[in-house]
Amino acid sequence: MLLITALVLGLVLFMIVYARYMNACAYLTDKRLKVENYRNQIEERIEKINEEIDKVEVDVDEAQQQLKDLEYRISRARAK
Protein backbone atom coordinates (compact mmCIF):
# COMPACT_ATOMS: atom_id res chain seq x y z
CA MET A 1 0.00 0.00 0.00
CA LEU A 2 2.86 2.36 0.85
CA LEU A 3 4.52 1.60 -2.48
CA ILE A 4 1.35 2.41 -4.44
CA THR A 5 0.89 5.66 -2.50
CA ALA A 6 4.51 6.63 -3.17
CA LEU A 7 4.12 5.84 -6.89
CA VAL A 8 0.89 7.84 -7.16
CA LEU A 9 2.44 10.79 -5.30
CA GLY A 10 5.53 10.57 -7.50
CA LEU A 11 3.36 10.52 -10.61
CA VAL A 12 1.34 13.50 -9.39
CA LEU A 13 4.51 15.45 -8.62
CA PHE A 14 5.96 14.53 -11.99
CA MET A 15 2.79 15.70 -13.72
CA ILE A 16 2.85 19.00 -11.81
CA VAL A 17 6.49 19.64 -12.66
CA TYR A 18 5.94 18.64 -16.29
CA ALA A 19 2.89 20.88 -16.57
CA ARG A 20 4.87 23.82 -15.19
CA TYR A 21 7.67 23.07 -17.65
CA MET A 22 5.24 22.94 -20.57
CA ASN A 23 3.61 26.17 -19.42
CA ALA A 24 7.00 27.88 -19.27
CA CYS A 25 7.87 26.56 -22.74
CA ALA A 26 4.58 27.83 -24.15
CA TYR A 27 5.15 31.22 -22.53
CA LEU A 28 8.64 31.47 -24.00
CA THR A 29 7.41 30.40 -27.43
CA ASP A 30 4.67 33.02 -27.29
CA LYS A 31 7.17 35.71 -26.36
CA ARG A 32 9.54 34.55 -29.10
CA LEU A 33 6.75 34.80 -31.69
CA LYS A 34 5.81 38.28 -30.48
CA VAL A 35 9.43 39.43 -30.73
CA GLU A 36 9.66 37.98 -34.24
CA ASN A 37 6.46 39.78 -35.26
CA TYR A 38 7.76 43.05 -33.84
CA ARG A 39 11.03 42.55 -35.69
CA ASN A 40 9.18 41.97 -38.96
CA GLN A 41 7.03 45.06 -38.42
CA ILE A 42 10.12 47.16 -37.71
CA GLU A 43 11.89 45.82 -40.79
CA GLU A 44 8.86 46.68 -42.94
CA ARG A 45 8.73 50.20 -41.50
CA ILE A 46 12.44 50.67 -42.13
CA GLU A 47 12.01 49.52 -45.73
CA LYS A 48 9.14 51.99 -46.22
CA ILE A 49 11.18 54.79 -44.68
CA ASN A 50 14.15 53.97 -46.94
CA GLU A 51 11.87 54.00 -49.98
CA GLU A 52 10.49 57.39 -48.96
CA ILE A 53 14.01 58.71 -48.40
CA ASP A 54 14.96 57.55 -51.89
CA LYS A 55 11.92 59.33 -53.34
CA VAL A 56 12.77 62.52 -51.46
CA GLU A 57 16.37 62.36 -52.68
CA VAL A 58 15.15 62.04 -56.27
CA ASP A 59 12.78 64.97 -55.76
CA VAL A 60 15.60 67.08 -54.28
CA ASP A 61 17.88 66.23 -57.20
CA GLU A 62 15.15 67.22 -59.67
CA ALA A 63 14.52 70.46 -57.79
CA GLN A 64 18.24 71.27 -57.78
CA GLN A 65 18.41 70.63 -61.50
CA GLN A 66 15.42 72.93 -62.07
CA LEU A 67 17.05 75.59 -59.88
CA LYS A 68 20.26 75.43 -61.88
CA ASP A 69 18.23 75.70 -65.08
CA LEU A 70 16.39 78.75 -63.76
CA GLU A 71 19.64 80.37 -62.62
CA TYR A 72 21.08 79.80 -66.08
CA ARG A 73 18.02 81.33 -67.75
CA ILE A 74 18.11 84.33 -65.41
CA SER A 75 21.81 84.92 -66.09
CA ARG A 76 21.16 84.71 -69.85
CA ALA A 77 18.23 87.12 -69.56
CA ARG A 78 20.34 89.62 -67.62
CA ALA A 79 23.14 89.35 -70.15
CA LYS A 80 20.86 90.48 -73.00
Helix- and strand-based class?
mainly alpha
Please tell me how large the radius of gyration is.
34 Å
What is the overall shape?
rod-shaped
Low-confidence stretches: none
- Quaternary assembly: single chain
Helix content: over 70%
What is the string of SSEs from the N terminus onward?
Answer: H
The count of β-strands is 0
- Biggest beta-sheet profile: none
Query: Average pLDDT value?
Result: 94
β-strand percent reads under 5%
Number of helices: 1
Can you characterise this structure?
With 80 residues, the protein is an all-alpha fold. The protein is built from one helix and no strands. The mean pLDDT is 94.
Give the helices and strands, then pairings.
Blueprint (H helix, E strand, L loop, with lengths): L1 H78 L1
Short characterization:
The chain is mainly alpha-helical and 80 residues long. The chain has one helix at 2-79.
Please supply descriptive tags for the structure shown above:
80 residues; mainly alpha; 1 helix
